[in-house]
Amino acid sequence: MKAAVIESVGRAVVTEVPDPTPGPRDVVVEVAACGLCGTDLHILQGEFAPKLPIVPGHEFAGEVVGVGSQVTEVALGDQVAVDPSLYCYECRYCRTGHNNLCERWAAIGVTTAGGAAQYAVAPVANCVKLPEHVRTQDAALVEPLSCAVRGYDVLRSRLGAHVLIYGSGTMGLMMLELAKRTGAASVDMVDLNPARLETARKLGVSASAATPDELDRPQGWDLVIDATGNAAAIQDGLGRVAKAGTFLQFGVADYATRVEIDPYRIYNQEITITGSMAVLHSYERAAELFANGVLDPDVFISDRLPLEQYPQALEQFAAGVGRKIVVVP
Amino acid sequence: MKAAVIESVGRAVVTEVPDPTPGPRDVVVEVAACGLCGTDLHILQGEFAPKLPIVPGHEFAGEVVGVGSQVTEVALGDQVAVDPSLYCYECRYCRTGHNNLCERWAAIGVTTAGGAAQYAVAPVANCVKLPEHVRTQDAALVEPLSCAVRGYDVLRSRLGAHVLIYGSGTMGLMMLELAKRTGAASVDMVDLNPARLETARKLGVSASAATPDELDRPQGWDLVIDATGNAAAIQDGLGRVAKAGTFLQFGVADYATRVEIDPYRIYNQEITITGSMAVLHSYERAAELFANGVLDPDVFISDRLPLEQYPQALEQFAAGVGRKIVVVP
Amino acid sequence: MKAAVIESVGRAVVTEVPDPTPGPRDVVVEVAACGLCGTDLHILQGEFAPKLPIVPGHEFAGEVVGVGSQVTEVALGDQVAVDPSLYCYECRYCRTGHNNLCERWAAIGVTTAGGAAQYAVAPVANCVKLPEHVRTQDAALVEPLSCAVRGYDVLRSRLGAHVLIYGSGTMGLMMLELAKRTGAASVDMVDLNPARLETARKLGVSASAATPDELDRPQGWDLVIDATGNAAAIQDGLGRVAKAGTFLQFGVADYATRVEIDPYRIYNQEITITGSMAVLHSYERAAELFANGVLDPDVFISDRLPLEQYPQALEQFAAGVGRKIVVVP
Amino acid sequence: MKAAVIESVGRAVVTEVPDPTPGPRDVVVEVAACGLCGTDLHILQGEFAPKLPIVPGHEFAGEVVGVGSQVTEVALGDQVAVDPSLYCYECRYCRTGHNNLCERWAAIGVTTAGGAAQYAVAPVANCVKLPEHVRTQDAALVEPLSCAVRGYDVLRSRLGAHVLIYGSGTMGLMMLELAKRTGAASVDMVDLNPARLETARKLGVSASAATPDELDRPQGWDLVIDATGNAAAIQDGLGRVAKAGTFLQFGVADYATRVEIDPYRIYNQEITITGSMAVLHSYERAAELFANGVLDPDVFISDRLPLEQYPQALEQFAAGVGRKIVVVP
Ligand SMILES: NC(=O)c1ccc[n+]([C@@H]2O[C@H](COP(=O)([O-])OP(=O)(O)OC[C@H]3O[C@@H](n4cnc5c(N)ncnc54)[C@H](OP(=O)(O)O)[C@@H]3O)[C@@H](O)[C@H]2O)c1
Ligand SMILES: NC(=O)c1ccc[n+]([C@@H]2O[C@H](COP(=O)([O-])OP(=O)(O)OC[C@H]3O[C@@H](n4cnc5c(N)ncnc54)[C@H](OP(=O)(O)O)[C@@H]3O)[C@@H](O)[C@H]2O)c1
Ligand SMILES: NC(=O)c1ccc[n+]([C@@H]2O[C@H](COP(=O)([O-])OP(=O)(O)OC[C@H]3O[C@@H](n4cnc5c(N)ncnc54)[C@H](OP(=O)(O)O)[C@@H]3O)[C@@H](O)[C@H]2O)c1
Ligand SMILES: NC(=O)c1ccc[n+]([C@@H]2O[C@H](COP(=O)([O-])OP(=O)(O)OC[C@H]3O[C@@H](n4cnc5c(N)ncnc54)[C@H](OP(=O)(O)O)[C@@H]3O)[C@@H](O)[C@H]2O)c1
Ligand SMILES: [Zn+2]
Ligand SMILES: [Zn+2]
Ligand SMILES: [Zn+2]
Ligand SMILES: [Zn+2]
């Protein structure tokens, strides 16, 4: 089959590789589309993946075209979205329900061959059936959505919160859509790039600007979410949290990034700073929310490129052009 | 001024009463509209209100036309919605943050003169300013909405829940609107009265029926909400909760109502049954959500009668005809 | 090896069975002691276990005497307590972190050969190493303790609660010990059997009686825990919950038991009723708490019988004589 | 009566002032003892108190010797501990249950005359009756304990946590006592001052050292609590939090203190940083826990000086000698 392959650091190609064969509890999925994200760039830079070459791609959905000998839950022809997470279920974090912090964390598209290919293999437990009305290509969005759902699980926000989101990329916009669905009284968004904020306005943001200084909320926001990973945004955002409010570190900062906090204020205003990492108990719920129309795929997917152009897709993503880019085998 | 008065058990009239005078931290509100609810019927039956006669009405909004000597927070001409709750701040429940369970619970329209009148008086702290775009009459809906918000505060539901609501009256429909805004993956509704379900469908319910038997969800619902107070509905609903799910007793049952639970199932499926009572820390948030359009007043308010017809309004409400009925002075 | 075997409904024997052989990620444990509980009686009555004969016993600890080919986490000679739970990690409940509600729930001693034997086999992930100062026999108490820990995880109680526990058997007494360690301001206990309450008094209960009527707390208790499974106790306990309080169904009632609740009170006093089922993310923590002396084994283990007397041990347990009975191979 | 008075910045005296007279819902308390804390030093430095002179003292208990005309809850001769907090009940924080963040925060001993005097006046709602077995002098400890209880309310910790506390002063030691009562599996403590750690060891700390480097816990601690306010301690502590763990800013840092956080780690390990400020819904519970012996007053109160020596007591406190110092009128 045809597949994208990260062959070595800095080198991505599309080439022929052997078709995957399923284990007894595995499913072979004919990929309809596979999304790209920051993790793929990290792999290209020689991080995250324990060894190269690897077929990347952990955001994908497709049709079941093969099943292992002990699979009964899905059948040939089913449309499925695939949770890429592979937990050990044995380490201290798995044993206490924090599987996303698994000591032996593994994932389809990172530690095993992924979805940037014609076919991909996945444990049946990771395959979530999609209702017929969902366009399978679009369901590549379920994985990033399931990260956003985890973010709101951490926040446990109540009805009526005032929310400020930094970064109007794919993830910031998903946080926006979910803010509305977790009862926000208002959702404001900041991004340095005015073009990005257009989409936010299209999706019904309450207010948007290049900086919160332009927004009229001196008492701050109950929830401030970083969806940039950018040090300046994080530093600014920490200062915008209202009394008794919460800052969510959702963006992935560089390892070396450091920002300052003010311990007196943390104490005196009972401010909380917390983080959310990948997917935890949230994939199926994201799939259901997606099937129920929580996202408009035509807004979220800005580019659909043929699998052959995987290297170019990666370049475009690295250049920060567009929103979610998917490759279509 | 003109006011509705519950004179004695079973007897409501509209008559002239002295204009109210504000204390130093009080506000006089010219009532734009005042809603009716079950509490008013209880008062008519000689319950809840410690003494008669009383001017009823605890769901109201209007314009500030007088302020006490020490009021600075609102000014003449401001439009305000009024939280009727009057807590003692001294009892063990107030001192632990459960003001809605206050041992000396009191409320405008129950223990002191209410909003079914041309003017009403309220502590300034209970007056929430409304933005200009809100039609003040409609803001009579803020109080019931703030009860619904309390319900979801108790539930603390996560994104992706499947919700079943019993009762498609004013409160059930508010629970529906908030279910969508607390991230429900689906919201189903049952009501014995098919006419009532039409509104539910208009508001975008996922499925509706006379009984959950007609709905296809053998594994049950994550959240089941009673918004009827009816014994049969409660009994049925308790059996519809999914494993690890929650039943919310929001409807006000008769004192004598008893329903059965199955302790083995509570244990074995880790089912939770809980309740939500009136307003707690939720009035301002309800006002903001209302101002942001969480409810369509023209759907929720079915009848706007002149204050003179308060007795007839009460009769119509008792007969269960329509949704929210408001009187307009 | 020698093992207790439930051969058929109502028939338990001690006999010779083949020694167990570990799979690649399994461990063979030489059992130091194995506790008996209600589950074993259910198995004897033909319930819970999918097929007979079965070697029972899910509360055990012992020494590692064999390891599978891929085991590195424990070594021969290690003392371990064994979590009997075997989850599928694939069903909707496992995938959302409710493994104790697993649709394919399985357990050592219920669906596979258990610890009432000279040797037992367990996945290495289920084996928790014990520090040297722990007497391995005593660590048969870790499993029931891990159920009690799950109970308090469900309760999430705050410092200063007033707690009432029904049933002064092994589990009620564990709930007592943990009430003290979850910040209870007071812990009262009721049991019909005055002899049982002596142990409660020895462990420092605040007050104890045959019925809460004898205890002076008209406002009720913040937390009421049923640790009897008895219908009369549950019914009585539901009425003892204070405003804003919680009732925990910890005892395992008969399937047919039904008790009555008062929906007006659930609503008006914001009462919560909830349940806790077996072990969830709590086994390791129970082992640590146990190692740190949270329980006095000599109080909790009333009888240590030789494995040969397993049938008699079961009879004594069924007769309700003593507290935790363990068999020692 | 005799009272300590902060007359002007830097100047504390003991002098005669008029006896206090109670309002209708107030109580006059003959002070048994009044504790000193950092707030008193801030007042001396011209901070916190809106105007000088002021009678300081917000940690006190005593006997009821006078009651206002409308007081029925306490009687002459009752022993009471006094919650110093005076909330407005009107601001946005009070109205949402965050009274400790009140915009018009006021307190006995800060904004009105306090307990470093022969008599003090307090609203009856702030007076908590003590059982007879409590030595009233010792109950000056209830106020700081109620801050510690608030800290654990914020933490909502589960059974089995590993806890690390920085600072073995009065507050750190209270956090230690409460860690044990909130189910900690272990509680370690660090302090630069070896003499301070002796008390920690006396109270049963699991391990203690000058720095966590000496403690063997490479995976970090589930809960890390700063009870120093010291920048170096906070900075060190933030790096000691285990995956999925929480850091509590309990110590009051200088306004200018800044420490660094690592956003990648917050995200990747789902770390939470939060704060707890003074007393919220926790005073009565602290009083009950205190009455039940949660603290040994003879360990916690290191010095009992006569009221006449208030200025010297303040100096000793500023010098960091001893634990809780109380003055006895
Ligand atoms: N927590 C999780 O589980 C999880 C899951 C997925 C992704 N993530 C992370 O979430 C972040 C967002 O992902 P994405 O795919 O949406 O990325 P993206 O498309 O690159 O969007 C980030 C946006 O933030 C803007 N931005 C950068 N610096 C800013 C600043 N100082 N102030 C305001 N806006 C700023 C960028 O503007 P320009 O276009 O001008 O640069 C861009 O529009 C990334 O860090 C990603 O790694 C986290
Ligand atoms: N918790 C709180 O804070 C709070 C606040 C406000 C109101 N409430 C309570 O909430 C409940 C609903 O209030 P509402 O104003 O919406 O009342 P409502 O307009 O009377 O609506 C109740 C609806 O439930 C339906 N119903 C009755 N029995 C039923 C059954 N067995 N199965 C299905 N549907 C059934 C009724 O149908 P019919 O028209 O055929 O009777 C009606 O449509 C009341 O009990 C009210 O007291 C509680
Ligand atoms: N939720 C879980 O995960 C879990 C885990 C383990 C066990 N359990 C359940 O927890 C319950 C207790 O277990 P156990 O081992 O402690 O049982 P146990 O030793 O039989 O203790 C139960 C105690 O309750 C007393 N009792 C019975 N009816 C009572 C009543 N109406 N009022 C007051 N006391 C009454 C019994 O007295 P007599 O001796 O006079 O009968 C006995 O002392 C059982 O139902 C068990 O199945 C639950
Ligand atoms: N959050 C609240 O509601 C609340 C309430 C009351 C108090 N507080 C705050 O809690 C903190 C503790 O109060 P306290 O009365 O216990 O104060 P304390 O008696 O001064 O105790 C603080 C202890 O921390 C030690 N320490 C200082 N720097 C350290 C470092 N880098 N590493 C380790 N230990 C260090 C001190 O040692 P030395 O003796 O050598 O200096 C001292 O033993 C204060 O900041 C206080 O303002 C907060
Ligand atoms: Zn793991
Ligand atoms: Zn009250
Ligand atoms: Zn399962
Ligand atoms: Zn306030």
Tell me the layout of helices and strands.
4 copies of one chain form a homotetramer.
Chain A: E1 2-8, E2 11-16, E3 26-35, H1 38-44, E4 59-67, E5 79-82, E6 85-86, H2 92-95, E7 106-107, E8 119-123, E9 127-129, H3 142-155, E10 162-166, H4 170-181, E11 186-190, H5 194-202, E12 207-209, E13 221-226, H6 231-238, E14 241-249, E15 259-261, H7 263-268, E16 272-275, H8 283-291, H9 297-300, E17 301-306, H10 310-318, E18 324-328
Parallel strand pairs in A: 10-11, 10-13, 11-12, 13-14, 14-16, 17-18
Antiparallel strand pairs in A: 1-2, 3-4, 3-8, 3-18, 4-5, 5-9, 6-7
Helix pairs in contact in A: 3-4, 3-8
One NADP nicotinamide-adenine-dinucleotide phosphate binds next to helix 3, helix 4 and helix 6 of chain A.
Tally the helices of chain A.
10
Given as residue ranges, the uncertain stretches of chain A (5+ residues, pLDDT < 50) are none
Could you tell me the mean pLDDT of chain A? 97
Q: What structural class do the secondary elements of chain A suggest?
A: alpha/beta
Strand content of chain A: 25-35%
Task: Give the helix level of chain A as a range of percent.
Answer: 10-25%
Give a short account of the largest sheet of chain A: 7 strands, mixed
Radius of gyration of chain A: 20 Å
Secondary-structure element string of chain A: EEEHEEEHEEEHEHEHEEHEEHEHHEHE
What binds here, in terms of ligands, is:
NADP nicotinamide-adenine-dinucleotide phosphate, zinc ion
* General shape of chain A: globular
Number of strands of chain A: 18
First CA to last CA of chain A: what distance?
Answer: 10 Å
